[in-house]
Amino acid sequence: MRGGGCEAGYSLLEVMVAVVILTVCIIPMAGMFDAAVGAGGGDLDRARSQANRTVETVRALDYRTAVLRYGSGGAVACPGGEEPGYEGSSCTLRAGFVDEELRLTDVRYGTRLLLEVRVEWDGKTHRQTALVAAVEP
């Protein structure tokens, strides 16, 4: 016989039903997350890596050498070639001189060189821009 007091809480059946409902909702979400993580992110990561490596290769040069090699304004193949294990991609580097507001100028051998790296693969494109500036004496 029960006492006259009121007992608060959930029965075992209510807890089990809640666990089943949560399980039915969470398992499909976990599958969608796994599919989203593996959906081609590796190609974009490789393209970013290629572009970053190209920019850093040019920045590692002294400014005069960078201008002589890449300051013509035309597109050239990225230094270092394509990403290892990433056949079928192409990487081009274009450089141009810019003014203080980063507008392209006709000035030859200015003090600011704007780089544009373009990596293409499977009909997709990743572009990255960077500024290389001469060090003031």
Structure overview:
- With 137 residues, the chain is α+β, with helices and mostly antiparallel strands.
- The chain has two domains: 30 residues; 91 residues, no CATH class.
- Helix content is 39%, strand content 22%.
- It contains three helices and four strands; from the N terminus they run αααββββ.
- It has a four-stranded antiparallel sheet, with helices on one face.
- Strand 3 and strand 4 form a beta hairpin.
- It is elongated.
Give a short summary of the structure.
The protein has helices spanning 12-37, 41-60, 63-70, and strands at residues 76-77, 90-97, 112-121, 124-133. The protein is an alpha+beta fold.
How are helices and strands ordered from N to C? HHHEEEE
Estimated structural class: alpha+beta
Question: Helical segment tally?
Answer: 3
- Helical proportion? 25-40%
How many beta-strand elements? 4
Residues in β-strands, percent: 15-25%
Spatial shape: elongated
Q: Roughly how many Å apart are the termini?
A: 96 Å
Rg estimate, integer Å: 28 Å
Rounded mean pLDDT is 82
Strand order of the largest sheet: 1-2-3-4
Identify low-pLDDT runs: none
The major beta sheet can be summarized as: 4 strands, antiparallel
Number of domains: 2
